[in-house]
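Morning F.,

Quick status update on the modeling queue. The single chain you submitted on Monday has been processed. Sequence for confirmation:
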Amino acid sequence: MAKITLDNLAHSYYPNPKGEDDFALKELNHNWADGEAYALLGSSGCGKSTLLNIISGLLHPSQGRILFDDKDVTHASTADRNIAQVFQFPVVYDTMTVRNNLAFPLKNRGADPKYIAQRVQQIGQMIGMEAELDNRARGLTADAKQKISLGRGMVREDVNALLFDEPLTVIDPHMKWELRTQLKSLHHEFGHTMIYVTHDQTEALTFADKVVVMYDGRVVQIGTPQELFERPEHTFVGYFIGSPGMNVIPAQVSGKRANVHGSSLNLGRGYGDLTGKVEIGIRPEFVSLTQGKGLPVTVRRVEDVGRHKIVRADLFGHEINIVASEDMPISADMNRVTFDPNHMNVYVNDWLKVGEAA
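Structure tokens below.
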């Protein structure tokens, strides 16, 4: 287990980067605590795998350092970093049995045979492959092979960190849920530092203690699922987290009031006079569809998703979403919306602006 420090870290795949846009991973300075589980979350191409490969030693950064427990490992090999990494697509030895595949990392380090047998049995049970332990890996399905790969990554208890690069891509949905649960149990039991790359917010939010949201090569927010939901520090976090994501609406802000197309809203906090690209953000859960008061909207459609209804509406030519309770009747004369001022955020050039208490 290790505390992982990213010190002035950045990476470009160009030999002579000319500017910030040439960097796939823009400058990062972060400390990730020993023993916590992190998820790197973001859309394809945002830099998640680049960062993971730098941490593992598969990629050398263009600038900066990476430290494990304050020891500089920037130039250390993957083996010397003492990490385990599981990749998106299964890497197994087809001619070996499942048991020998799982045992290989331990045998390679000279572990006691009794410990190896016990640990392999434990991992085999964890990944649901006890019955296949003595079968050869050749001929197994892709998801079975990925389970072996996952198990081989988890079999060592002495690693500094466990790194997972979208490991459940080829796993069937039910097994995904089981393996996520097992990974969380493993983390609670052994306290490994874990870093899990995914573009799936459900995977990230159910697995991690802290979610590291990346956008355009940057870490835009590190927080608990609750923090990401309630106080997105960047509009991308608001869009990406939640289903549907946060409503982001252009506005003019002065003091405690926001002006949206001539309609005034109480923000609950003071912001002064803001310039630049100013927007307000509010989760659909904190928008109410009403009649007679609030901002005028045109309801486009209502989607009943079982636990609640999602109302798709038009606000001054801007699409917004409203989450309503399943049993709430929605009539034609409900053509106004109100926003809860306690859950409105203000953004300037996409970044959260912290207001002063009223």
